Amino acid sequence: MNHTKMTIKGDKFYINGELTYSEIDGCPYRGLLMNARFIQGIYDDKTGRERYIRFGKSFDPDQNTDELIESLPEWYQAGLRAFTVGLQGGGPCFTIPLDSIDNNPYGSDGKNLDQAYLSRLARLIDAADRQGMVVIVSLFYGVQSMYLTDDDAVEQAVTNICRWLKDRDDKNVIIEAANEHNISAFECHKVLSQENGILRLMEIAKKESGGLPVGCSGTGGYFSERIAKASDVILIHGNAQSRNLLYNLIKKAKAIQPARPIVVNEDSQALSQMKVTFQNGVSWGYYNNMMKQEPPTVWGITKGEDAYFALRMQEYLTGKQSDLPFEDQFYLQGLEKDMAYEGKRFIRLASLYPEQIDYVEFYRDGILYEQAYDDPFVINFIENWWQGPVTGIESGEEWKAVVHLRDGKIIEKRTIAE
């Protein structure tokens, strides 16, 4: 099809010969590739789909992919130009044990690509191509790599999937060799967990894909100079990083010469991180692991965090501030209908401008329950991409967030648990 031909010149992205966002008059950030982690876009679980009957939906892998495809025009309109999808998906971090999932399309020896996965991936890449978007195809995900018997099987899997991409002649694809290759779950394979192995896989991917751009990510804050130098696109993660730590990571990536694009393709829903990346000419990746990584996923721009991300992205790209009324710039999230799982809810205060918040007090039926001081403002904060649950919430409970702004103003958001 090739409606969307992505190329790289220096540290900038081009689509069909034009800097990205050239269609936006006066955009100061042309050449970036704003993206989101839609890692479960072709997800399945061979252990059974019954446990994904939740959140008011049932799960069907083809429907899941089709619903993501249907959402792409909305995301494009908001400014998104790329998304990451995983051959081995990602983890439903809050609910289902990762080692109980079988989401491996390669077979045990890397030679038997699952045609159902390939069909879904093909539909998704084609849809992105029609829309003017780039797909970052992530080949391996931590715990799922255990289904491959050895390093040879991993290399064979890379060879086969990259040959498949070459045969398709896709021009809107970036290959991520592995998602956070330095996590302990990859240690069962030296070729995935060690620098030399990743360099080998990246070399295979470039050759067998016919020259598609390749990179590989590590955990938040991790940086490998050797991997960065071998990358066409330097992929970094901002998880668990403060804004200054993220800046420090970007400085390391910018020191690599010759310059090439730097893409954060996983961070958090902490929108304050975006300022660091925009100011330094780096593409940011929105990661909402509750709304966008827990199948069955609602792929569109949902109320709260998704909507605020979309508005902030538009503000940066257009230079025009949102006209959303002040009262609507805060949303007490996680108490909606069908958002409980096994009695657990994940409650947070979403905000269009989290930088203006000093701290948030959460009240449960009039009694102070918890305070939050860091973006994103959540109950049971662990890291900026991860929080603990609240259990035992009954329908009809009143929850209130008292938001203390840095200028001394206070705003309250109330909701009733459904």
Short synopsis of the structure:
26% of the residues lie in helices and 21% in strands. With 418 residues, the protein is α/β, with parallel strands linked by helices.
The first-level CATH class name of the largest domain? Alpha Beta
> Any idea what the radius of gyration is?
21 Å
Number of domains: 2
Q: Which shape, going by the Cα principal axes?
A: globular
The helix-and-strand class reads alpha/beta
Structural features:
TIM Barrel, Immunoglobulin-like, alpha/beta, 9 helices, 6-stranded parallel β-sheet
Question: What can you tell me about this protein's structure?
Answer:
The chain has 418 residues and is α/β, with parallel strands linked by helices. The chain is built from nine helices and 22 strands. The strands form seven sheets. Strands 8-7-6-5-4-11 form a six-stranded parallel beta sheet. Helix 1 (61-78) packs parallel to helix 2 and helix 3 (151-168) runs parallel beside helix 5 (195-208). The longest helix has 18 residues, at 61-78. The N and C termini lie far apart (46 Å).
Write the topology of this structure:
Elements: E1 6-9, E2 12-15, E3 18-19, E4 35-37, H1 61-78, E5 82-86, H2 115-131, E6 134-138, H3 151-168, E7 173-176, H4 190-193, H5 195-208, E8 214-215, H6 225-230, E9 234-237, H7 243-254, E10 262-266, H8 273-279, E11 285-286, H9 305-318, E12 330-333, E13 344-345, E14 348-351, E15 357-364, E16 367-372, E17 377-378, E18 381-383, E19 386-387, E20 390-391, E21 398-405, E22 410-416
Parallel strand pairs: 4-5, 4-11, 5-6, 6-7, 7-8, 9-10
Antiparallel strand pairs: 1-2, 2-3, 12-14, 13-20, 14-17, 15-16, 15-21, 18-19, 21-22
Helix pairs in contact: 1-2, 3-5
